[in-house]
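Re: Re: ligand-bound prediction request (bumping)

Still looking for help on this. To restate: I need the protein modeled with flavin-adenine dinucleotide bound, output as structure tokens. Inputs repeated here so nobody has to scroll up.
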Amino acid sequence: MKWFDYAAPRTVAEAAGILASHPGALPLAGGTDLLGQLRSRVRETDLVVDVKRIPELNEISWDAARGLTLGAAVPCYRISAHPVIRRAYPALADVAALIGGVQIQGRASIGGNLCNAAPSADAVPVLIALGAVCLVSGPGASREVRVENFCTAPRRHVLEPGEILVAFQLPPPGPGAGSYYLRFIPRNEMDIAVAGAGVAVTLDDGHIRSARIALASVAPTPLFVEEAGEWLAGKPVEPQSLAAAADLARKAARPITDMRGTAEYRRHLCAVLTRRALEAAIKRAKEERS
Amino acid sequence: MSESTYAVVGTRPPRHDATDKVTGRAHYGADFQLTGMLHGFILRSPHAHAAIRRIDVSKAEAFPGVKAVVTSADLPESPEQMVDIGEGAMPLSYIRGNMLARSKVLYKGHAVAAVAAVSPHVAEEAASLIEVDYDVLPCALTVEDAMRDGAPVILPDLRTKEFGEQTGRPGNVAEHFRHVLGDAENGFTEADLVVEREFRTATVHQGYIEPHATTVLWNEDGHVLVWCSSQGAFTVRKATAAVLDLPVLRVSVTPLEIGGGFGGKIRIYLEPVAALLSKKSGRPVKIVMSRQDVFEGTGPTPGSHMRIKMGARKDGRITAAQAYLAYEAGAYPGAMVAPGAMCVFAAYDIPNVVIDGYDVVVNKPSTAAYRAPGATQAAFATESVVDEIAENLGLDPVEFRLMNAAKEGTRRADGPKFRRIGCVEVLEAMRNHPHYRAPLEGPNRGRGVAVGFWFNVGLASSCTISVNSDGTVNLLDGSVDLSGTRTSVSMQAAETLGLRAEDVRPSVGDTDSIGFTEVTGGSRTTYATGWAAVEAARDVIGQMKERAALLWETDAASVEFDRGVFRAGGRSITFQELAAQLDETGGPVVGRGAVNPSGAGGSFSGAIADVEVDPETGKVSVLRFTAVQDAGRAIHPSYVEGQMQGGSVQGIGWALNEEYFMSAEGAMLNSSWLDYRMPTSLDLPMIDTVIVEVPDPEHPFGVRGVGEANIVPPPAAVSNAVYRATGVRLYRLPMNPVAVMEALWQKESEPGGGSLHSDAAA
Ligand SMILES: Cc1cc2nc3c(=O)[nH]c(=O)nc-3n(C[C@H](O)[C@H](O)[C@H](O)COP(=O)(O)OP(=O)(O)OC[C@H]3O[C@@H](n4cnc5c(N)ncnc54)[C@H](O)[C@@H]3O)c2cc1C
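Reply:
Sorry for the wait, this slipped through. Here it is.
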């Protein structure tokens, strides 16, 4: 690891100023991705800008009309313990309790999970399925970016120099909503998704009113399979519907073969995980309705 | 188990080093500090096979904070000799070549140069400024690649040894040997059923949690002082002295606590390099490996290519067996194929056997010992074939093994005839265990069994015992404590002296303070160092009898000792009372024991594994696992159980997910804990254990080493269970989810295959 300087701004404007005037400076949230990358020299920088002391990045707030505002640097342990998130966005609570172990969850943030821009990031399919929007601030005007449009390639995203991710805005779940995240890993914990499926559904009497499905680890970026969700809308809750949506997810996947699995195997997993995640989300939605 | 006549042996006292280990006070390799210490960093080859044209270290030397830079040019030259590196010998040129590459790099991760600087970060930064001009060569990564005609030649001077003779043939096969018993060809014609199968296993690492770490001071008087974590200080001393061309007297090694070794911390990697850096800089130098260095730069265990053929009669008698074992040595000869050949059919009494072994160099790190080195690969193959034969003959797999089990008098194809062994007892314990009889409910579940053998070694150990005036004793031995041996050795001394375990204060000596002691390895420490402690205790008793005789004005020969009390002619005195009178009777009593036993009794181990296979993902979950092992005599049953559980877990990891995942260019792509995928506690059931005790007839307490045999059966037991769960047999390790899924697809695509018990809707 190379020596680097460290800054800890207290406001979004201050952070944006520092980042804009130091090309190559890197934001630091929990550091659970970044510090490992710096140590192994996958990345190098002369300046690390800690964003954890900025209040907006540490906020969790809920409003029945606007939904959930989740600060980008909020550590996972606060998310999985949050009563509103557990009730209204169960898949988000699941994923916050699944990233790493207890020590990692004490530091790791959902903002960091997205900004690291790994195809395998577990929280990202969940954010996409839940319809989350990124609130971005920088030297220019603030802007909103839908999570499915945030990552552009492995380790690349849409933030301009000087911009930081401040928070996520998640719409309030409608009645009969259920969400679920399921990843496949060869071990039971502490592993990287070979493939993952995040789904959110809303039900009305025996039918699927709406559904959103997104996949991890099967494309250069987390993959929103819009067509699978659209196809499901209005379909009865039956195994055939789920199998057909799962097949659409399989077809959308563009995986590679690497040490974690072959492309063929990953495509197969997309169908299995999508179907199983849909079943689980539907079960939750039914419990929510009863 | 027999009713124990022992007071200490067989009990479970707390370990002597427990508090330091639990509170974190124990000093491991990386904890050691000296004033003025520098930090070393090793630059490693990015290529699996390349000629080194030029190394330019000038920029690194000029980097602020750098105090020394070394390359192989700093290593001394000295005539070729074989150097004992613990459990075997290796030519000095190979040991030196592995320390710092000379004209060629032979694997990715091969050390090329080293820097010492004021901080680890400065050293690393400076190392990146070293310019190495490589001529990249094609590489051979598996035995099949390396044995192919026209394969890249890895060691130009290597000539194949065949059947003990030099052939003069160049190539990558260092040795081909053969063991023959009876007439295999004839034996196969007697068989009603012959099964021949081909197997492959991946390179795997021991996976000790503590990375290699050393601190070395080349003192102004020319004496080299080493503090390191290793499996044996004397082996480190010998190898370091040989590489540096120094007499052993000029090297002193102090062993620090070790955070796991499993065979991988017998050989040295860092000490001579740190010594050269210290000599150049005049300061002590510490080097700590990263996890990636450990995976890429130290010795894993060989990947293998094997064929096993076995024939049996309808009545269940095995008539003949044949093995082809080709193991990856890594960059230098020394694949553990010889021990593999000793173990491959060791569990069975087979009249006709042929075993061919091949030691093959490949462009991977030079392999090292790993818990029963060579035996696990071989047992995976043999026990899979045995299982298939049992099934085809309609016999219970444990009964079939019992019908053919090796026993006292059985001859192994590699020569030795078994003395008293516990193979039958282990199999009977498996058969009688409730696990074996328990119903296995639910779809996609299966139960598999397997057995395995490790021969164990004796070798040299030294121990001294000093008697304190209050009747307690201090015990010093030369065995690095990997697994609670301070306690298991002390217990044997305590039993002999009639003391309690806590009356003994054990410590592990450095090379200046205790007699020569071989490495902690080969399952030998509780056996051989324990024996040395018994000898030292007997020496103490002999000297104490003389003191009692002096007090009682009688003859020492008339003094008897039993359970802590000396008696003669109606008088008696306790060990403690007599200890208080040592000053008046001639001064301190120091007992010594030095042994070199050769006939260690081997240990058999068995495993029963229940698995469930997810038919949609191929993931194998181990639901229940029982390990059975012959311990001869369990000195401290908790530690024996711990060894059995540890070996089982490592075997399960080897079976399911662990492997060196290599790129075509020879880079290990998964050199981190994240992607190397050892099982964690969340991936395992509680491992149940059954200790079988068939005492070794020669050892004072009947001890058989228990550190290794337990890793041998699990991969085969798991594979046999996967077969019973799915109808699919896997012939390659690891049986990771992709491999299992592909096998399931293959079966479905075969005529008559059809779906398994899958409820898949997709
Ligand atoms: C042992 C271990 C286990 C893990 N397990 C998992 C797992 O199961 N699933 C999983 O998905 N990941 C896992 N990870 C990876 C990591 O923990 C997660 O990706 C985590 O969510 C990253 O969050 P962080 O706050 O630590 O990010 P950091 O490391 O601080 O940052 C990550 C990246 O985002 C950038 N960044 C951070 N915040 C901002 C911001 N507000 N604006 C702009 N850029 C920003 C940083 O510059 C950096 O490039 C694991 C890591 C470890 C070490």
